[in-house]
Amino acid sequence: MNSRILYVIYKECIHIARDPRTLAVMFLIPVVQLILLGYAVTTDIEHLPTIVLDQDLTRQSRDLIEAYRASNYFDITRYASSEEELGRLIDKGLYRAGLIIPTGYGRSLIKAGRAQVSFVIDGSDPTVASTALPAAQIIAQAQSVELAAELIGLDPTDLPGIEVHPRVWYNPDMKSVNFMIPGLIALILQFLTTLFTSMSIVREREQGTMEQLIVTPIRPPELILGKVAPYVAISFFDLAEILVIGVFWFGVPINGSVALLLALSVLFLLTTLGMGILISTIARSQQEAMFLSLFTLMPSIFLAGFFFPLEAMPQLLQWMSYVVPLRYMLIIVRGIVLKGVGLRILAGEVLAIAIFGVFIFSVAARRFRKRLE
Questions:
Q1: Where do the H-state alpha helices sit in the chain?
Q2: How many Cβ atoms from other residues are within 10 Å of residue 228's Cβ?
């Protein structure tokens, strides 16, 4: 690395140090997003507030209530006196589910061996409803097996049927935080490098110092490298920050090679830095550069499978996701961190990232060079 590049890097570091608010944002954004995604953005539905209307008041109805109470899905904290009261409390949003046990439930179980109950779920939030519904059905089925075994005098394990032994690989506890935090690594790399690279170059143009740089012996490739190098270093610091907090605070396991993760992150930076440089050649102000960076970030989040599975999207959006580099980086990061896979398994995604990186960075560097000339 020649002295001209070092001088540009030194100059850019001074700019960053003189703006403490921007510096604070660079280091605090990963922590804030990590906390929000780790605690607030979760698909793990547990301890759902549940109200019960027990019109039977028998041992059998109490056993059913205790079966629901014993699960981690439903917290039974109140008993209603009528269906009107139960409906009113669910309408207010105080309870998300309600169990209605009709009169004669216990008698029907004793005489006929079967009975019916109603389980009301607030479907205004489909995520909650889609988790609560199968949980309610599973608990009822387990209770039915125990009752059937009790009526015929057999141990439940001796009943005929198919016994399934499920095994969950890579994320046995099915914690959503183990899915979100690795994805945040790729998201932070794209967000920080694209946003701050574009703003730093536009800032030179706004302050009138770009013309001063042009008349110096510094060549365009050296100027590009010197401008982006500090933000690459900051991005890798944030990456390490996410990994440390994720492992020691949230307990996310790292099953693969950290060195491989860092190496492929460098490859991904070709794409994000190229996008930042390309935006800097379009934007005329730092505010415009920020809006353009956010404009490119939002579609990437939703089309890359960061929050929602690609398989659940319409076919057209699935096709569009193939031109989103973040899609491939999410597969790489989650594959290394959660599955512990290596380069041989990720060869297709690595090739796609390399193609995107070389193409976008080349186009951005050529356009930036023309703007300087």
A1: 3-17, 20-35, 59-70, 83-91, 105-112, 126-152, 176-207, 210-214, 220-248, 258-282, 286-303, 315-320, 325-334, 347-372
A2: 25
For 299, residues 6+ apart whose C-beta sits below 8 A from its C-beta are 324
Q: In whole angstroms, give the CA distance from residue 138 to residue 319.
A: 36
Q: How many C-beta atoms surround the C-beta of residue 311 within 10 A?
A: 7
Distance CA 192, CA 28 (A): 11
Q: What pLDDT does residue 85 have?
A: 92
Q: What are phi and psi of 315, to 5 degrees?
A: -60, -35
Q: Using DSSP bridges, classify how beta strands 118-121 and 97-101 pair: parallel, antiparallel or unpaired.
A: antiparallel
Residues 6+ apart with CB under 8 A from 322: none
pTM of the prediction? 0.78
The one-letter amino acid code at 217 reads P
How many whole angstroms separate alpha carbon 286 and alpha carbon 279? 10
Cα R_g (the chain), whole angstroms: 28
Question: Collapsing DSSP states into helix, strand and coil, what is residue 218?
Answer: coil
Q: Give per-residue pLDDT as tens, 326-355.
A: 999 999 999 999 898 889 889 999 999 999
DSSP three-state, residue 41: coil
8 A C-beta contact, residue 90 and residue 128? no
Measured between alpha carbons, how far is 76 from 70 in angstroms, rounded to an integer?
A: 10
Place of tokens 């002295």: 3
The residue among 364, 88, 68 whose CA lies nearest residue 228 is: 364
- Sorted by where each begins, the domain ranges of the chain are 3-41+175-372, 48-158
- Written as one letter, the residue type at 342 is G
137 CB contacts (<8 Å, ≥6 apart)?
A: none
- Side by side, the strands of the sheet bearing 97-101 are 74-79, 48-54, 97-101, 118-121
pLDDT digits 0-9 by tens, 77-109: 899 989 999 988 988 888 989 999 999 888 888
| Architecture, CATH, for domain 48-158 | 3-Layer(aba) Sandwich (3.40)
Q: How many CA atoms lie within 13 A of 230 on its CB side?
A: 22
Q: Which residues are bridge partners to 101 per DSSP?
A: 54
